[in-house]
Each structure stands twice: as structure tokens, then as C-alpha cells.
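User: Here's a protein and a ligand (zinc ion). What would the complex look like?
Assistant: Let me lay out the input and then the predicted complex.
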Amino acid sequence: MVIQLFDDVSGGAGFATSAASHIDKLLTDMYDFLECDSCCESVCSTCLLDSNTRHDINHLDRHLALNWLSRDFKCFVSLAAKYNYLQGSKYCHESIKEAISHQINRGAKSVTLWLSDNLHEWDLNVREVHMFVYQLLQVNKVNLCLVVPLKRLSTCKLDSLKNRQRVDL
Ligand SMILES: [Zn+2]
């Protein structure tokens, strides 16, 4: 899939460069837009037809686009419903490391990582994790909290990380 983003302002206003930070909203809004409030048969001025697209009217069909995206498209660009209990949570297109770094650059002073219930998904003993935790604690000076499922506490892999980085549980 290719998405072409551009500013309506001649020469651009610089909004397109920040699109990656809002990709979940852009894609869900796009899908909602294709559903068309006027419920047209293929294309209309409520959805896809405007002065930029009028020359391509014979090639536009919102239903084909919706079918191509599939009904569950929004599930892939939204946070899974099972995480709704985490207040303020949202889908993130970046890696965890990138997302945390961006939030720290915006002034975050604490980081809470919720580890999954599946022990096999944890890679806490790899060097990259140790280096990142070190950077969070020693360089960025943030408070780090790891939330571990209670039933996994006795068999968790956190001992070496806890001892080496002095992470609170
Ligand atoms: Zn329409």
C-alpha cells in the first residue's frame, strides 16, 4: 500500500513530515472517510471527489478501496481492545525503544513497561535491553517500573536485569 500525503498549501506547510507520528489517526480517519456520510454508490463530493480528483472520477470507487482494505483494517492500526484497561494507552507504530525515546524527548520522567503474560515473549537478558535500561536510568534519569504478571514472578527472567540495573519491581 502506498499513501501519498501532501499539504494543500502551495509549497507545503510542513504538516506532511509529522504524519508518521499520527499515522494511526490518519489511517482510521481515511477509512471513516471512505465510508462516506452521504453513502454514495462510488464517489461523491462528500468523500473522494474534489477539485484535485475530478479528472480521475472514472478511476475512483470508495467501495473498491474499502474492500481492498478489508473490514478489519482499523484493527491493524488501533490498539487491541484487550489493552483498553490501560488508561491513556494508544496504538504506536514505532518500536518500543523509539516510542520511549520520543516521550523522554518530550519531557517524560517515568516509564512503566507492562510485560506480557507470555514468558517466551520476554527478551530481557539481551544486551540491547540492558543498554537501553542503562540509558534510561543513568543517562535520561527516568524512573523505570516493570510490571510483571504475578503468576510469572517466581519464574521470571528479571533477576540479572534487576541486579545489574537496580530496577524496581
Ligand atoms: Zn461519497
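Summary: The first strand starts at residue 110 and ends at 114.
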